[in-house]
Amino acid sequence: MQHLRNIVILTGAGISAESGIDTFRSEGGLWEQHRVEDVATPEAFARDPDLVLRFYDMRRAAIQTKQPNPAHVALARLDREWPKRAGGEVLIVTQNVDDLHERGGALNVLHMHGEHLNAWCTACDARHRWTGPLIQRPPCPSCEEPALRPDIVWFGEMPYRMDDIYAALSEADLFVSIGTSGAVYPAGGLVRRARDLGAQTLELNLERSKGSAWFHETRLGPASEIVPAWVDELLGA
């Protein structure tokens, strides 16, 4: 693998599950006992903003009690050491809205679906770090309007920084998908795009994803075991 320089890593709910953060959608189509359509769409927010704000306030509080697991820490190590070893770059693109990659030590992280610990002002378009509740409609620190909402990409909204993601894929020698089902687009289509652009593709997951056939190699197991093992192998090489 000495020829590898640039690595793009896509992470999903499976990498945070072992830290106690529930995966997004259960078999019954529920997310922590709520229909996704009731808490994760712009229409839901317009229809019942209190329900949506309470839901995200609970999630925001819960995430701050969780800790990074060995998979997060291993990717942070790769993020730090790979540029020195290979002269290339590592970009962690995450579907997750927690901050466990950052708390694990990673620096080069792109949150394509937003972040729980951010609030977005729909009045002035400012974004602010936010760790407390939003249910009481606190004023925006920038414009003082009570127009803050969770800075989360809901169903029907465009994921963040897709141009940056596609640009990174165009330079990638290796695309790695960790702990994601491949069911949510456009994230689910990144492996095909990476492969079409000539990158090697690797899947690290508890079970095969919906797009598993697009990967050159798949390794199955808990993220906290197979991710550190892969990073050790890569840095050892």
Strand content: 15-25%
What is the CATH topology of the largest domain? Rossmann fold
- C-alpha-based Rg, rounded: 18 Å
Based on secondary structure, the structural category is alpha/beta
Give a quick account of the main beta sheet: strands, pairing sense, barrel closure.
Answer: 6 strands, parallel
- By DSSP, the count of extended strands is 11
Give the H and E element order: EHEEHHHHEHEEEEHEHEEH
What is the average of the pLDDT values? 92
Rough outline:
elongated
Q: Supply the CATH class of the largest domain.
A: Alpha Beta
Q: Can you say what the CATH homologous superfamily of the largest domain is? A: TPP-binding domain
Q: What is the name of the CATH architecture of the largest domain?
A: 3-Layer(aba) Sandwich
DSSP helix fraction: 25-40%
Number of helices: 9
Could you give the order of strands across the largest sheet? Answer: 5-4-1-9-10-11
Task: Report a brief summary of the structure.
The chain has helices at 13-16, 36-39, 42-47, 49-63, 70-86, 100-103, 162-171, 190-196, 223-236, and strands at 7-11, 30-31, 34-35, 90-94, 109-111, 114-121, 127-129, 148-152, 174-178, 200-205, 217-220.
Give a description of the structure.
This protein is α/β, with parallel strands linked by helices and 237 residues long. The chain folds into 2 domains: 146 residues, Rossmann fold, CATH 3.40.50; 81 residues, SIR2/SIRT2 'Small Domain' (2-Layer Sandwich), CATH 3.30.1600. The protein contains 9 helices and 11 strands. It has a 6-stranded parallel β-sheet with strand order 5-4-1-9-10-11, with helices on both faces. It has a 3-stranded antiparallel β-sheet with strand order 7-6-8. It has a two-stranded antiparallel sheet with strand order 2-3. Strand 9, helix 8 and strand 10 form a beta-alpha-beta unit. Helix 5 runs parallel beside helix 9. The longest helix has 17 residues. The chain is elongated and about 55 Å long. The model has no long low-confidence stretch (mean pLDDT 92).
